[in-house]
Write a structure and sequence with these properties.
The chain has 425 residues and is mainly α.
């Protein structure tokens, strides 16, 4: 049964469906602590595997005699595979149980990390990264769905805030740890960075109940699965390769058209399925649709702004690459502090005004940063808007995620999270 509070804007619709045999866990309990620890570690593993390789690209090129195209694939192969399999992974989590799918994903990432570490050639490394992306697809949406579906309803927004802050902190510290390993040990060592995290997560997960028990046997929606994989994979590949190869190049155009066509074809195919992989009934919720659109726009803006700010710092203000990265550390620190507070406020005042205020703070931060000029001091021109940036994300991101997951039943959390994650990719 579902219990509802006010709709988005004055409050959040919270769904409390769960199996009676597995009661929902309070955040302040041993189970709640184990749940937060396991899901944060799992998300951190996925974030590290996605991003930490960027600092090792020059060293990989020198050691394996790899060209530019091959090096690009060492980075993008993980991202493309993860994005392509997100919807399928979400459906698997809702049908077979989130904890079971999360464990499977972590084991895939553990094995693939070792394969990356011992890869004798760049081709082998790319193949191992593709496998690593499969694990990432299983872990990325499932960890948040497990957190939200297992916590007590009144603790969910606060739990999401803590999860977001810790996950972001881990993702931000990772590249610096990876850079140290590349300089002091070897580029291969970065692929072992996640191994202890995976092991600790696997040790912690048995203490976590799974309220998302198997809903039904997996339907034979092979056509839907294939269309989703082709559609998301092709679109993400086109968006990734377009900046390097040119948006009007033949492979990028063809891949983009094929991807969009597959996603458009997915809609009528899923309508005809008795047990579709993507339940289109989710989109009947205006709150679910609105939050997904807002997520797509917000994270698209954040991605573009982050890229442009780093370029501005280096090309206009004369920062080194390391200085440009370090300049935005206060953003992460502020996000880490504010996210749990924002989560606690959601249940009191609702998500709408938090999202509005957070996004206005982000806009002000970007306008402030655009006025930085050569010779301006960091303390005056960069630090204040960097802190405002972190404040804006910390205030906006937690209620955005909480409102999305509150708009669906607990049985659909894996699929809903996968759809939202695909929008952020």
């Amino acid at each position: 049964m579902n219990t509802e509070s006010q709709a988005i804007g004055t409050g959040t619709r919270f769904n409390a469906s769960a199996t009676e045999s597995s009661p929902l866990a309070p955040l302040r309990s041993p189970t709640g602590a184990a749940l937060v620890a396991a899901t944060v570690l799992a998300s951190a593993v996925a974030a590290l595997d996605a991003n930490v390789i960027r600092v090792a690209v020059p060293a990989i090129g020198r050691d394996l005699n790899a060209g530019v195209a091959a090096l690009q694939w060492t980075v993008t192969s993980y991202l493309v595979t993860t994005a392509a399999l997100l919807l399928l992974a979400g459906a698997l989590a809702d049908r077979f149980g989130r904890k079971r799918v999360l464990v499977a994903g972590l084991l895939v990432m553990l094995v693939s990390s070792i394969l990356c570490f011992i890869a004798p050639s760049v081709e082998t490394l790319i193949a191992a990264r593709l496998v690593q992306g499969v694990g990432g697809a299983l872990v990325t949406p499932t960890s948040l769905a497990l957190l939200n579906g297992t916590l007590r309803v009144t603790d969910r927004a606060r739990g999401i805030g803590i999860w977001l802050g810790l996950e972001t902190l881990a993702a931000s510290v990772g590249p610096y740890a990876g850079g140290w390993l590349v300089d002091q040990v070897s580029w291969r060592a970065i692929f072992l960075l996640t191994v202890p995290l995976i092991i600790v997560c696997l040790i912690t997960l048995p203490r976590v109940p799974d309220n998302g028990a198997a809903r039904t046997a997996l339907s034979l929606d092979a056509v839907g699965a294939v269309l989703a994989v082709i559609g998301l994979g092709a679109v993400i590949y086109a968006l990734t390769a377009g900046s390097a190869s040119g948006w009007l190049s033949g492979p990028v155009l063809v891949t983009g058209v094929v991807g969009v066509g597959a996603l458009l074809a997915l809609l009528p195919v899923e309508r005809r399925q008795r047990e579709p992989m993507v339940r289109l009934a989710l989109f009947a919720s205006r709150q679910f649709d609105a939050i997904n659109v807002a997520t797509f726009l917000l994270y698209g803006a954040l991605g573009a702004a982050g890229y442009l700010v780093v370029l501005q710092l280096q090309l206009q203000l004369g920062y080194t690459a390391a200085q440009a990265g370090a300049a935005l550390i206060p953003t992460t620190a502020m996000l880490f502090v504010i996210s749990p507070i924002s989560g606690a406020l959601v249940s009191r005042i609702g998500p709408r005004w938090l999202m509005v205020f957070g996004e206005l703070a982000l806009a002000a931060a970007f306008i402030w940063l655009s006025g930085a000029h050569p010779g301006a001091s960091y303390a005056e021109a960069i630090l204040p808007p960097a802190l405002l940036w972190g404040l804006g994300i910390g205030i906006a991101a937690t209620p955005l995620t909480a409102a999305l997951l509150a708009a669906v039943s607990d049985a659909d959390l894996g699929e809903a999270t996968a759809i939202n994650t695909a929008g952020r990719a």
